Amino acid sequence: MLDRPDRLRAFLEQLHAILVKQQLEKTPAQLVNSAFDLLGQSLGEAGEKPARRLPICNDWLEPALELGGNGSAPRRHLLNIFRALEPRLHWHRRSGSLSAGRTFYEGHANAMLIGPGGLEVRDDVWLGLTLMAPQVNYMRHQHPPEELYLAMTCGEWQQGDGPWFARGPGETVHNQSMIHHAMRSGETPLFTFWLLRP
Ligand SMILES: [Fe+2]
Question: What is the fold of 6-196?
Fold first, then answer.
């Protein structure tokens, strides 16, 4: 048994349970399985970044968590554990985000639970989250690791030059390696977890 702090362990167990129920296609299922295998095999270093909230968190985090927990006991449980972990997170803006305009810069915040700058620091699995105010576009980006988003609220995603598509609470988006992707919020704040295996 790994000596992972209780709340983080409980969060991971609940997240895993939700993802297992998604009936994901083969590739995203492999990403989930391999990431949780690694998390089950070893423990990273305890994170040392000081807790820090950004102004957007004070305005939109609680409304997003309320929305995300509506109508689903498993999601509500996950978000309640998250609430208990959140005061220790180091929220940050995406690097270079000011170049994408003031609305994006001030209207989003990211944090890592697991990975660089997270509560558990390690390189092999990154588990993070994004909060966006309503009517914000998250700048198009790409990266070598494939990525799975688990939406907690409604939002829209785009892959490559494809059409925008909506995802609601508990739904996933799988981004293949190096695909350009973006997301945007509508009338409500957008809150999503994301999982990568660099
Ligand atoms: Fe991404």
Answer: Jelly Rolls (2.60.120)
